[in-house]
Amino acid sequence: MLLAILIGSVLGFLLRNREKIVKFSNKLLIFTLYILLLFLGISIGKNSKIMENLPLLGFDSLLISLSGILGSSILAYLFYTIFMKKNEK
User: Fold this and answer.
1) pLDDT of residue 51
2) Which secondary-structure segment (H or E) carries 76?
């Protein structure tokens, strides 16, 4: 898996100036993510234990998601105020 990331990074670096390839790879990436989400939804729907506990799992997932969003927003604001405002002056 690490090798795939390394190869992808090198290819991305080498092909970064070829706009058609970058646009195509972005569209392909989004399409692939939608397919993965579709299959994830199908596998969740087939699992009876998950479906029975969905209300509890949904609330926990909501809390985790909101915590991640809040933490990311706070860190992004701190990063901006500490590092980026110095560069603007």
Assistant:
1) 82
2) helix 54-79
